User: Fold this.
Amino acid sequence: MRQIPFYNTRLEGSFWGEKQRVSREVTVNSVYDRFKETKRFDALKCDLEQQKREGWQAHVFWDSDVAKWIEGVAYTLEYEKNKRFEEKVDELIDDMCASQLENGYYNAHFNIYNTDKRLTIRDKHELYSLGHLTEAAIAYYHATGKDKLLNLVKRYIDLVIKCFVEEKTAGFITPGHEEIELALVRLYRMTGEQKYLDLSKFFVDNRGNNDVDLIAYLDWANAEYAQDHLPVREQTTAEGHSVRAMYLYIAMADLALECGDEALFNACNTILHNIAEKRMYITGGIGSSCIGEAFTVDYDLKNEPAYTETCATLALSLFCRRMTAIKPFGLYGDIAEQAMYNVSISGVSIKGDEFFYENPLTIDLADHNKNPATKQKERYPITQRVKVFGCSCCPPNILRYINSVADFLYTEDDNTLYVHHYMNGVTEFDGKKIRQNTLYPSCGKVKLTVNGDYKKIAVRVPAWCEKFDASAAYSMKDGYAYFDAAEVLEFDFNISPRFVVSAPGVHDNAGRTALMYGPVVYCVEGVDNEGDIFGLSVNTSSAFEIIPDNYFSLPTIVADGYAKVDNGSLYSNINSVKYEAKKIKFIPYYGMENRGETDMLVWIPMK
Amino acid sequence: MRQIPFYNTRLEGSFWGEKQRVSREVTVNSVYDRFKETKRFDALKCDLEQQKREGWQAHVFWDSDVAKWIEGVAYTLEYEKNKRFEEKVDELIDDMCASQLENGYYNAHFNIYNTDKRLTIRDKHELYSLGHLTEAAIAYYHATGKDKLLNLVKRYIDLVIKCFVEEKTAGFITPGHEEIELALVRLYRMTGEQKYLDLSKFFVDNRGNNDVDLIAYLDWANAEYAQDHLPVREQTTAEGHSVRAMYLYIAMADLALECGDEALFNACNTILHNIAEKRMYITGGIGSSCIGEAFTVDYDLKNEPAYTETCATLALSLFCRRMTAIKPFGLYGDIAEQAMYNVSISGVSIKGDEFFYENPLTIDLADHNKNPATKQKERYPITQRVKVFGCSCCPPNILRYINSVADFLYTEDDNTLYVHHYMNGVTEFDGKKIRQNTLYPSCGKVKLTVNGDYKKIAVRVPAWCEKFDASAAYSMKDGYAYFDAAEVLEFDFNISPRFVVSAPGVHDNAGRTALMYGPVVYCVEGVDNEGDIFGLSVNTSSAFEIIPDNYFSLPTIVADGYAKVDNGSLYSNINSVKYEAKKIKFIPYYGMENRGETDMLVWIPMK
Assistant:
């Protein structure tokens, strides 16, 4: 099974084409400006005098922020030259190379601070940053043919192999924050050099195998925090810091594919089922708790405090993509899609220049700063998007994600083309040409034109789809409709608004429903609905008014509902309470909090 | 208007007679044993050598715990001599008197520790403890005629007058924790000495009048925490630490009555309306936040983290009782009753020997200790009753409350007997005799026999009562039915189960209902209902099965409901979800968590 890389695809208009346009016109610049202002670029020079003079210090993982920006820029360069950014990236790479130490080490913080502590403190993210630099180097080399950054990371990785594997002089055995494991597999795939695959396997296989490693780590965390509670092949549930977990699972899936490691694939499959069936918000958000940005227990999916970091969901969909590349199985694509159309893009504003790190499912402004008695405030996720974070991992992560989103579209084997996702565009590779004409997910119709040497074409039919129509006969297997290959296939997922309820175990959603439109979760915002949105309930037999909306790139939806009338009493006998009919306007969840700070909810009481 | 003190009433069997029996047979001993074990009694001796030898230190407010136990014992002595306890109390009083300083000062901590800090630190609760000692002294003197403790507190209060009013040498102006203000009014009423009323007025009138006072107080709190944000007559909302707030409001109501201070009464009335209409749980619980044990903002009534300290609700009902003594107004009695039958008694176990400090409305055990990734745990109220707390204010407070609960029954003026509450028993005073025959609140029927020189008899008809039947004609005014005086009046509040909903502003209760029976809130417990109680919804048109229950002293109730069937999917299209019919058993909320740790909820989704 081969994945068709994104750079073979040109997305045209429609949903993702538009997202890419905004990303290339706005986000890439916005992240650049913020990183410049916050000295993330200057930091790469490792100029201690400058930092002293200007009164700032390079942070241990600033490298990784810049690396993701470079990776994002590289993806845009696949489509369109941009001299200014290419020069900027070259300059950044020059700065890094000039500071790379003789032995290959490079980190913008440890090059000049705590120099005796290099590769000794497990939580200092050096290998995480190296992983992102590696991904950036691969992307930039592919887009431009320039290998300077690639050579930097190769030299650095040789040092890592020496310190961690050969001489065991490093201060720990496996990284505190995974990332390098998956980057090494990418590097192996690009270079064919076995040592990279071996190092990835070394880190993955040692995880959960030793105690000392963890004890030298963090005093407030348990082994689960860093997925260290069990050897990876014995892990069955998604645990700990959700981004770290996803990066590990991605590497596990990559290694399962490269090494034909069935035990590793089975572990990935079991963990992904645990996420999909018990630990994921309807928005694709994962990691319920702000304490450790972590997974907690099955069904713990509270809406208001939901942490659900953007990066975690981006990575969840990448994990699913890896799984799809091993085995076409409906759930993998379904979860990738649920992540893709909700929290992945709720993390960036419609305009493209402001970001959410956390993506709660309820924003109740009355709850914030609510205790006049004390200066101590309860913790709630922020309610307004910002231009940059102290830990600004999400903005450049969204940039690289959106610009490589076509990676999700296709895999092929010798007989079959697998169509996993639906985006308007054309893909050309190896003399083959595939075209999708679709307004998905505004409309469920897809026209697929395939010129290629396939016997079968397999099309993922999402589990939410209640009525699938197709222009030709097909047979269903594992969530895919298998057609005999034809130049043109037309099919329709019949997208229309539908109400969804959650499993009884999700206590926060008892008696409540969420509105979805295809894979897109909708929400109710105060700015669209008069009065207190938390006093509304929805008629689940409602007819829908579907209103095209250019701002959100998807229709808004109006449903029938009710507002409880305030009779002035805090508690009233049920017969004395009145409800008035009320139209309730829903917008796509990813578009929340784009029009000023406002109340928002996804799960609304049913009536 | 005169209030008829509790000691004129003998409650017989039925609801409160039974509570008093348990209190006198179990609670008084249980609190005694725990206080003895925890050295609270020994502490009164102020024996520094003993404390050093045994390795403990008297706490600044342990005096107040013991004082409330003495007050509770005194109330039991009004009915039944108990030589053992009377001797014990005499011994404790002797210990205190032996340690009282020459200048009148007495505090079990400051007598031997930080002796240069006496009456200088606003948050050290010395005046709070003195207030409770004063209430204990008054009660013990009334029950036994012994005035030794009374003389101790009088000497101490003279010192307070000197330090705070005459010489202004104290380190602050008004106490950090109110209580002495209301105790001083009681002492004034007993002795007729104006200086006590004046001191109470001094403390109340200075509250909120000066900044310095607050600044020297706590660095994490705002002025609202100690009701210091405004002069008391300008306060319109219940603010800050809920117990402190209630003790202040009680004193304000007492002073309003004694001084005919209409502005003070109006402030009390406005604040009580704010509580009743916007800041009180259906259980009578107040103080939503654990941060500062405080009121927050209107409608912030989240069920699971609800702090709602037992003492705060006990005091809320006492505040309402004071208001009733000024003006018979239905709301005052209604709120007193809502507090009385729910959180006031949920604070003590059915057996009488274990206690809750906090009284949440949802206990979801799956939420507790739910983050395996970290050692940091989210805060939740405890879910099992305990025998003693570090800050053990609630247990002796419940003791004194239950044994003086007949205080709530009657007030009179020259023409009218006001009947505020319904308890089976007989009251004799001034040659008059009033008898209530009732099983209230098991049954809404009351037979009232009055031998006394009244023209009118006014009977509070609770706002929850949908059908009031009476044996004679009456006219309604302010929530009271006014009858022409008759020797026998029979009436019926027709108590039956009913569903209640909350105002739309209470976001946590959207789409949910609570079951009530008269003034008693009911709840669903895991121990009575198979499966996950948080997956249940109730049919609000249900018929009810009412099952007599001796354990709870009130019937349990079974209603028709539904359980969402788990189809294995985390999210499902609404049409594919099935519900199965399910009988749901409810018990009185005050009986929660008496049969082992179990899930509990009050507000259940409606279907």
